[in-house]
Write a structure and sequence with these properties.
38% of the residues lie in helices and 23% in strands. The protein is of the alpha/beta class and 279 residues long. 44% of the residues are buried. Its cofactor is Mg(2+). Belongs to the HAD-like hydrolase superfamily. SerB family.
Length: 279
């Protein structure tokens, strides 16, 4: 396997040499100052600790494996494709961000059921003017670093994209044309007379729902799991990620990092392109 090293800073030559020794690599190849390939490398117990301490992301990739080998990328929205948790920012308009954010964190760590956590959080938004949603989109929603680079590469390789979120349709539907996403699915906030009622319409799109949408689109495209990549950051992404041949934990909770094929703790979303196009 080739060991691909990724960072947001220049990787010092002494770090490359140390990792080459640890992994018994046959040779080191510099892609650029922030990306290296260690050829014919092997896993070592000290790799993860050293890389984390020096803010280097890494992954073992089969030689010749590229993005072109995949047909579908499925991604979470909040804190994965975008840098915020939308519901926390909506709550901030009510002066309730700390209360809502605390419940969000519990759910993302897998400590409470996602559907129950969403109902509790949305209930706190009752009476908020719907214009707050547009303000969050206009003023606070930011794409995570590398999002547009990643999307351009996926399009160039004719890879279909699915944004599936336990968040809200209001935001996914605006991101869809902005980024050229193929499909999006999320939850719908109930709004009456211009104000949020504190309820979610229909069945809540939870962890199982995310997994089911992945499988549904994967099967409709005639793909096998090995041709699918799933990206997420929280516990409610684990079922979805388990249905993909490659799973990416993006700046994720420990429970997600432990189960993912690869963990991006430092690099942006363009890390997916760097990882798979330099194997």
């Amino acid at each position: 396997m080739n060991l691909i090293l990724l960072a947001v800073h220049d990787i010092p030559s002494e770090h490359i040499a140390h990792l080459a020794r640890l992994s018994s690599a046959a040779r080191s190849e510099k892609i650029d100052e922030q990306t290296w390939r260690l050829c014919e490398a092997q896993q070592h117990d000290s790799l993860a600790t050293f890389c984390f301490e020096h803010q280097i992301d890494y992954g073992f990739v089969a030689p010749g494996k590229t993005l072109a080998d995949f047909g579908l990328v499925v991604m979470d929205m909040d804190s994965t494709l975008i840098s915020i948790e939308c519901i926390d920012e909506i709550a901030d308009m009510q002066g309730l961000k700390p209360q809502v954010a605390a419940i969000t964190e519990e759910a993302m760590r897998g400590e409470i059921d996602f559907s129950e956590s969403l109902r509790r959080r949305v209930a706190l938004l009752e009476g908020l003017d719907e214009i707050a949603l547009q303000r969050v989109y206009d003023e606070r929603l930011k794409l995570n670093p590398g999002a547009e680079v990643m999307m351009a590469a996926l399009k160039a390789n004719n890879i279909r994209t699915l944004l599936v979120s336990g968040g809200f349709l209001f935001f996914t539907e605006r991101l869809k044309p902005r980024l050229g996403l193929d499909c999006t699915h999320a939850n719908t906030l109930e709004i009456l007379d211009g104000k949020l009622t504190g309820r979610v319409l229909g069945e809540i799109l939870d962890a199982q729902g995310k997994a089911e949408w992945l499988v549904k689109l994967r099967d409709s495209l005639g793909l096998n799991p090995e041709q699918v990549i799933a990206m997420g950051d929280g516990a409610n992404d684990l079922k979805m990620m388990a249905q993909a041949g490659v799973s990416i934990a993006y700046h994720a909770k420990p429970v997600v990092r432990e189960k993912a094929s690869y963990a991006f703790n430092f690099v942006g979303l363009d890390g997916l392109v760097r990882l798979l196009n330099h194997s």
